[in-house]
């Protein structure tokens, strides 16, 4: 896939913003060549219970997963076929989750993390990785996040702005969640269990 001059300029500006935002919010890469980044903070949303019975309450420590859009694009551009790019992306995300599980199991600062979550339009793909999705309750926040994610879609999707016109019903923001126990059970390498 080729990237136009204007898209390259937009991507470089967005890359600077992502680095600044990451520094400001202490977002760390999970592994050097991975696609996921992570920050931890106290949960401030409504109490909820995940599918495996894990309760998440206000004040619990949670991990917020962020997709590194520039790294995801670089991976996509390595392949001439969308199918090959999708397979490589899934493999990279599985490796990220295995590294994350190892970190959660070993690092003292991660001992209290109750669950992991993200806010994304890519919740269909997240289900394949083992995440569960939840509706985004606040309408104003949902609209703002949808606007932001739509901008990212325009910047990073090969079809650009035309992707927005292909089907607005697909452009829905949801929370995705995975409990600490599920992460460790499904992704901690067998050697470490």
Describe the structure.
The protein has 193 residues and is an alpha+beta fold. The chain has a single domain (5-142, 174-186), classed as 3-Layer(aba) Sandwich (Aminopeptidase). The protein has seven helices and eight strands. The strands form two sheets. A six-stranded mixed sheet has the order 1-2-5-6-8-7, sandwiched between helices. α2 (69-77) crosses α3 (82-106). The N and C termini lie far apart (41 Å). The mean pLDDT is 82.
Q: What is the terminal-to-terminal distance?
A: 41 Å
Mean pLDDT: 82
| Whole-angstrom Rg | 17 Å
- Stretches where pLDDT falls below 50 for ≥5 residues? none
The geometry reads as globular
Query: Which structural class best describes the helix and strand composition?
Result: alpha+beta
Domain unit count: 1
Q: What fraction, in percent, of the residue positions are helical?
A: 40-55%
Assembly type: single chain
Number of helical regions: 7
- CATH T-level fold name: Aminopeptidase
Beta strands, count: 8
Strand line-up in the sheet with most strands: 1-2-5-6-8-7
Q: Let me know the largest β-sheet.
A: 6 strands, mixed
The second-level CATH architecture is: 3-Layer(aba) Sandwich
- Tell me the fraction of residues in β-strands, as a range: 15-25%
Pattern of helices and strands: HEEEEEHHEHEHHEH
Name of the CATH class = Alpha Beta
């Amino acid at each position: 896939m080729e990237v136009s001059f204007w898209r390259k300029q937009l991507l470089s500006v967005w890359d600077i913003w992502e680095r600044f935002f990451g520094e400001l919010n202490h977002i760390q890469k999970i592994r050097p060549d991975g696609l996921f980044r992570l920050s931890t903070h106290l949960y401030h949303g409504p109490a909820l219970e995940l599918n495996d019975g894990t309760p998440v309450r206000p004040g619990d420590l949670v991990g917020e997963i962020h997709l590194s859009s520039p790294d995801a694009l670089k991976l996509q551009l390595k392949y001439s076929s969308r199918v090959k790019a999708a397979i490589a992306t899934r493999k990279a995300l599985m490796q990220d989750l295995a590294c994350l599980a190892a970190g959660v199991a070993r690092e003292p600062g991660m001992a209290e993390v109750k669950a992991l979550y993200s806010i994304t339009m890519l919740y269909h793909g997240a289900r394949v990785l083992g995440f569960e999705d939840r509706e985004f309750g606040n309408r104003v926040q949902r609209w703002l996040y949808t606007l932001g994610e739509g901008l990212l879609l325009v910047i990073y999707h090969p079809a650009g702005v035309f992707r927005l016109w292909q089907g607005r019903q697909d452009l829905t923001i949801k929370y995705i969640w995975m409990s600490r126990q599920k992460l460790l059970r499904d992704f901690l390498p067998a050697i470490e269990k």
